[in-house]
Structure formats: C-alpha cells, structure tokens
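Whiteboard transcription, Tuesday session. T.W. wrote the structure tokens on the left side:
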C-alpha cells in the first residue's frame, strides 16, 4: 500500500535534516539533491537504450548502495559514481562527497553518507514510473526539499530558489499557457538559480518548449542542470557564467540571442553588477537607449538585459525590489524611457517577506514588446495590481495562498479595475508633473483600510451615525428590509437608533426572510456544484491524475460562487484548496496508486525506532496498531454502527455523571473537618482502598460515626459503580473497534466511494461553506453591536451618572468622618 504523499516528503526532509549536523543548509542541499538525482535517473533510465541520460556501468544508485559502510565511501562515490555520470552527461561541479570539512572525517563521514543513502532506499521513492504530466512524485518532492532548504539557509543564501507560488504567478501572467507553443518556442532565464522558475514557466505551456538558462554560481548551475533532468527536461540548456559581464547565449553575429519569453529573479540591488563589464561600451547595447544603471544598484541592468533578450513579439517578467518603481536620478531616467516607449505592460506589488534571500517587498514588472507602440501613445498605460496584503504566514516567511495566486492572475488576465486592488493607469497620469514617471503603487492604488471614525455628536447626543450604517451598503443591498427592521430615525437628520434591544440584534437578522433567503441561495450554489462535480470525484480511479481532478473541481467551485452575494468566491475556493493540501491530495494519490478498495484498507504500523517521524495510529487491535488513512474509523462507525456508538456515548455520559457526583461529594465532605477528610490517602486522594480502609477503621456503626459511615459507603458505591461502568465502556469500545476493523475488509468499492466522497470530502467542504456564511453574518452582527455599544450612553448621561455616583461617595465619606474642603 502506498504511503501518504505528504508523509513521505516530511519524512524525507526530517531524515535528511537530522543528518545535517552543523553543516549550512545551503551547502547540505547539494548532497541531498545529488542523491535524489542519482536515484531518479537510476530508476528511470538504467538499462534503457537511447535514453536521454547515460548511466555508465557501475554508476547507478544500486552501486552507491553497495558502498554503504565502506571506509572510503566518499572517494568511491566521487570516482565511481559521480565522475562517470558527470562526464557522460556533460554535468559539472558535483559536490565532493569526501569533503571532511563539511561531512566530517573517519567514522563520522562513513556513518553520515551510509545513513543518507539509506534514506533514499525507501521503497516509496520509486521513480521508475514517474510521470511527466504534472503528477510526478519527484517534482513535488524536489519542491518540498528546495523550499525547506531555502528556509533554513538564511539571508542571502536562499536566492537559489524562487517560491513556487511566485513562479506560478509569473508563468500565468506571461500567457504562455494560452499561447500556441511548440518545441521552437523559447523560454530564457538569465539568472536561473536552481531552475525552479524556468521550469514552472515551461510546465505552464501547452506543448513542450525549449528552455535556456544562465547562472553565475557554478554549484547552483550544476544543480539547475540536474533539476532540468529531474523534471523531464533533459534537453534544456543551462550554462554557467556571469550573465551581465559575459552573456553566453548569442547568435552567429555575436549579438544577444532573443527569446519568446524571458523570466528572472535576479539578486536584489546587486552592488557588483558591473564587475567585468564596461557599461558605457557594452557590446550588446543593452543600456544605450535607456541610460546606465547606477554603479551600486544593478536592478535595471538585469531588467534591460531581459528587454534586449526579447524578440519583437516577446514578453518577459522580472522580480525586482520596490525601489525600482520610485528611485530617482539614473534609475528615474531609465524608468521614464521604458514607460515612454511602452515596454512596461504591468506591475504587480507582492507581499513583504516572501523571498528567501530578503524580507523586503518586491514587485513583478511585466514587459511586452508586441503592443509597446500602442502603450506609448496617449491612450496607453500600465496595468497595476497591489497584491501586498494577500498572503499567509508560513514559519519565518510569508506565502501566497492559492486564492492570492488565482486573484492576481484573473485580475491581470482580464485587466479589470478593482478599487483598492487594481487599475489601469493612463500614461497621462503617470507622466503628469506631480507624478513624473514615479510608478510607486500607492500613488495610483489606495489600498488603505478606511479609518473607523468616532462621531462626537453621537457621543454627546446619542444615536448611531447613518454614515457608519451606509458603510454596510453591501449587506443592505442583499437584505434591505433588515436595516429597517433593526433601525429607526433617532429624531435628528443623519442619525438612527436601534428598534430592538442589543441582545435581539442577532435573532432579528437570522430570523428575517431576506437573510434566510440569502443562506438558501448560497446553500443551493454549493448543492449545484456538488451535483455537477460528484461524478468527477466518484469517477476518479487508479492511475488517475490528482492535479487534473483538483483543477477541474476547483475552477468549477470558483465559477459557481463568482457572483454569490456577500461571499468572496476566492475565499470559498481557498477552503477547497486548503482541504486539498491537508487531506484530499493524499487521499487521491493513495487511490491513484492502489485503487479505491486497496487504498481503503487500514495499514499496519511498523515503527522505525531510528526515525523521528511517527505515524499516529487510528485504532489498535491487541498490540497491533493501524493507520486508516483514507477512511477514518469514525466514518465507518457513523454509517454502519450508529446504534453501538450511541450505547458507548450513553456509557460515557454515565461515567461523566458519576465523576461529577464524586467531585461534588469530595468538595462537600473532603475539606477540613469534613466527613471524608480522614479517608484521604497519603497523597491526599480519595481512592477505593483509602475509603474502604477508613470504613474498616471506624468499625461498626454507632451514633458518633453514623453520618461518616453513610457518606463513606455512598462514596465507595460511586467508586465501584464508576469502575463497573468503565469496564463496560472499555468492552463496548473494543467490541465496536473489532467490528469496524472487520467491516473495512467487507466494503465494496461503491460503499468506499460513499464514505470518502460523500461522508468525508463533500461533508467537510459543506461545513466550510457554512463557515463562510457564518462569517458573513457574524461580521454584520458584530459591527452593528459595536456601533450600538459605542453610542449607547451619551456624554451628558455619563456626566450625570458620574455626578450621582460622586455624590453618593461623598455622602459615605461624610458618614465616616472623612470630610475635606
């Protein structure tokens, strides 16, 4: 039975990280990813003729396994495995597996490499059938490891990796997925790092495109080459070298080669960009028509290189710090020239702390040569998006959510103005002297939250300002009569007052016909989506494609709720995507690997004592523990053993009642001088043994001890009843679990689909949609209650009440003789 995909990745990371010791993550990643590379090509291509990757005899992962425990394991990996692999496939800059300064020496090195190799022997890491259509276990494992290594690498050492979410945004806004592409379509990244951004753009294309990349750091360039192979792009061309000083992609005449698409995440504000280059005499004329970037700010040097590398119909996207939008002097001149020539199609402001090498906010500048002339005209302009507020915290960094990605891409693709988020800014506005080609987003998009103003007149005279109620216009548009049911004029223009008591605000809203109609409409939208997409969910089968499935049902959910009143369709969409990441994705990969029936069977947990990753059991039979990953026992119990569960619930309720009775008796009689005081043991506890001992101690009943004996006997009876009920509960639970475990093996495929699709997936999503409805209603209720409480007591009444209270205090003080002038 296949392991959960997320569990496999986390286990892989934890195992590798455990062996890292004191080595910097930015260096350690090279060793781990090389092992992943060797494992992959060995599984995928070993023994194949005409394979795109050559595996020399004796240089496979199996040969590496044979070196485990040998005293010269590091040297042997270098000489017998990596050396021949590199030579046969034109790879270079492989890490040194015998480097004592990084891996230790002697037994430490042998043990570390032996254990590291053992991690990749996990049977679940079988890449022989790895897919190249977006559902590959390898690509996701690589992304998982790269993200974690980048997180651990610290400032300035995590720049080898562009967050996958940002890469997806860039790929989508370039429009490569909507264009007709062939192998002749070219994509280029002049600062490709480990190649993650370049690959994401390539993956977005309808057909296989040709990838080119240049990377300054030799070790990272080697990593990028391996990454291309790992992601089924063995023909991609990645060259090591300094892109600005020595661009290596040129044509026969020595001029820069041009491409259909160019993307880049260059080092921010590179202070050494001109090393090895004379900008004033640049042979490629990248700065000639725009201006030379300042010596210690290389951002525009990279942007102008991208522009020069685009075909006349090409489009590019570059991640740069926000400073490029507003810094003056030389950069101001370059910015003016770019805008006047119409090359900037759009600007997308991103959240701060998104990238691994820096915490500063960045933006994506989108370049487009095809329509530049039209944008340079008086009717032209730049489409701007301020997406800086859409993210979630993820450890020390921020991450774009699925809804943030989708919102950015949809808005940019449709070029629609959204107040506070996006607008097309005319060239006339940008060039106006008051702006002077400053592209800082807050100049053109006001994304600040409106201030919640205090109304002095309302504080003095009472009433709720109509201005505050009018701000709730989106709600009143959906249920206008609710406002009339809640408020009435306050006796002067511009102010209203509640018709109902504050405690009745929520009931008044929830019981109103317009509100119940709103709930019914949203519920019906979900029911329609459910009816249309249940066949997709139930039709999913072994060897299915999980990413295609989630793409289909998620887009359908977004479209279904696009015009739902008061609900943000992207919020609803995010609930599905969160649940996909937490649960559904693992479920679908289990089904794709094993089929519905096999995937539903509980898995016997065999604990590896050497691993820190432990599987939480869902139930136990005797000493054996099981993980029921696709169908939790609670679902089987609810559908097939409701009566037995009800009996268990009743026993649990009895136990709770008995515990409460004992607690009340102990509280009443267990204190100092109480009838149970002397029945406590040396740990100050009332137990069966201590109570029985006290009964024996006081002997036969007499008038002096009758009350104590009665309480002791009653308490002892409760203890015995508690033990008896507990034993019944344990027996009932064990019997139920045995029946549940047996039921797993009897489930038909149709029954399994009902449990998973209806009882698990759709029930969870229905609850999430209901949660969104609750959030809408709670927001309205909370705001109205806040306004009502804010202006409930006018200042004159407060002053009067304070004076009355002060007079009462003075009177009390006089009676006490505390009088002063």
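and on the right, the sequence the group agreed on:
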């Amino acid at each position: 039975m296949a392991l959960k995909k997320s569990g496999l990745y986390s286990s892989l990371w934890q195992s590798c990280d455990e062996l890292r010791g004191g080595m910097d993550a930015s260096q350690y990643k090279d060793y781990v990813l090389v092992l992943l590379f060797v494992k992959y090509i060995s599984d995928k291509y070993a023994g194949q003729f005409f394979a795109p990757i050559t595996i020399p005899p004796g240089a496979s992962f199996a040969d590496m396994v044979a070196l485990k425990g040998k005293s010269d394991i590091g040297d042997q990996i270098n000489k017998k495995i990596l050396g021949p692999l590199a030579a046969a496939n034109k790879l270079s800059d492989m890490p040194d597996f015998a480097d004592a300064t990084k891996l230790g020496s002697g037994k430490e090195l042998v043990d570390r490499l032996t254990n590291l190799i053992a991690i990749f022997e996990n049977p679940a890491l079988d890449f022989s059938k790895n897919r190249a259509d977006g559902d590959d276990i390898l690509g996701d494992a690589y992304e998982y490891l790269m993200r974690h290594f980048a997180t651990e690498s610290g400032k300035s050492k995590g720049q080898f990796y562009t967050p996958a979410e940002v890469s997806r945004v860039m790929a989508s806004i370039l429009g490569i997925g909507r264009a007709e592409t062939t192998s002749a379509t070219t994509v280029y990244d002049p600062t490709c790092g480990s190649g993650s951004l370049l690959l994401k753009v390539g993956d977005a294309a309808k057909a296989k495109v040709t990838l080119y990349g240049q990377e300054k750091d030799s070790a990272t360039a080697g990593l990028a080459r391996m990454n291309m192979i790992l992601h089924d792009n063995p023909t991609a061309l990645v060259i090591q070298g300094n892109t600005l000083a020595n661009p290596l992609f040129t044509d026969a005449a020595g001029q820069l080669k041009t491409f259909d698409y160019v993307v880049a995440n260059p080092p921010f504000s590179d202070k050494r960009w001109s090393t090895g280059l004379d900008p004033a005499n640049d042979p490629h004329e990248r700065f000639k028509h725009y201006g030379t970037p300042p010596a210690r700010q290389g951002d525009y040097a990279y942007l102008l290189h991208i522009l020069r590398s685009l075909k006349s119909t090409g489009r590019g996207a570059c991640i740069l710090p926000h400073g490029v939008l507003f810094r003056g002097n030389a950069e101001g001149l370059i910015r003016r020239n770019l805008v006047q020539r119409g090359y900037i199609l759009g600007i997308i402001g991103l959240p701060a702390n998104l990238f691994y090498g820096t915490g500063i906010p960045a933006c994506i500048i989108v370049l487009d040569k095809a329509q530049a002339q039209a944008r340079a005209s008086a009717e032209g302009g730049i489409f701007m998006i301020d997406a800086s507020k859409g993210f979630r915290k993820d450890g020390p960094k921020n991450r774009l959510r699925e809804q943030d990605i989708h919102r950015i891409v949809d808005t940019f693709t449709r070029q629609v103005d959204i107040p506070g988020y996006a607008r097309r800014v005319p060239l006339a506005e940008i060039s106006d002297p008051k702006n002077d080609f400053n592209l800082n987003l807050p100049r053109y998009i006001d994304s600040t939250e409106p201030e919640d103003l205090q109304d002095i007149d309302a504080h003095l005279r009472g009433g709720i300002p109509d201005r505050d109620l009018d701000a709730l216009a989106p709600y009143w548009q959906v249920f206008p009569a609710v406002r009339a049911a809640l408020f009435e004029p306050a006796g002067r223009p511009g102010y209203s007052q509640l018709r109902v008591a504050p405690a009745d605000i929520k009931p008044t809203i929830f019981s109103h016909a317009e509100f119940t109609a709103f709930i019914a409409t949203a519920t019906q939208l979900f029911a329609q989506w459910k009816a249309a997409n249940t066949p997709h969910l139930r039709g999913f089968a072994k060897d299915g494609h999980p990413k295609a499935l989630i793409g289909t049902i998620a887009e359908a959910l977004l479209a279904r709720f696009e015009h739902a009143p008061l609900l943000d369709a992207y919020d609803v969409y995010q609930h599905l995507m969160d649940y996909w990441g937490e649960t559904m994705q693992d479920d679908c990969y289990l089904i794709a690997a094993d089929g519905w029936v096999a995937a539903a069977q509980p898995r016997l947990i065999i604990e590896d004592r050497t691993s820190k990753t432990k599987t939480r059991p869902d139930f136990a039979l005797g000493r054996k523990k099981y993980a029921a990953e696709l169908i939790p026992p609670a679902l089987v119990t609810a559908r097939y053993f409701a009566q037995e569960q009800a009996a268990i619930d009743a026993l649990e309720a009895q136990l709770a009642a008995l515990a409460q009775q004992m607690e009340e008796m102990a509280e009443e009689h267990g204190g100092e001088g109480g009838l149970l005081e002397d029945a406590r043991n040396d740990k100050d506890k009332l137990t069966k043994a201590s109570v029985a001992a006290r009964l024996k101690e006081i002997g036969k009943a007499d008038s002096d001890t009758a009350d104590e004996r009665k309480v002791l006997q009653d308490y002892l009876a409760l203890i015995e009843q508690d033990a008896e009920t507990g034993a019944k509960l344990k027996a009932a639970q064990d019997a139920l679990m045995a029946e549940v475990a047996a039921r797993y093996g009897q489930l038909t495929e149709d029954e399994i689909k009902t449990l998973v699709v209806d009882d698990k997936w759709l029930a969870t999503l229905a609850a999430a949609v209901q949660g969104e409805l609750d959030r809408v209603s709670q927001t309205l209720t909370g705001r109205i209650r806040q306004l009502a409480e804010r202006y409930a007591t006018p200042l004159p009444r407060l002053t009067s009440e304070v004076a009355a209270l002060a007079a009462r205090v003075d009177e009390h003080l006089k009676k006490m003789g505390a009088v002063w002038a």
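Someone added at the bottom: Residues 642-746 form one domain.
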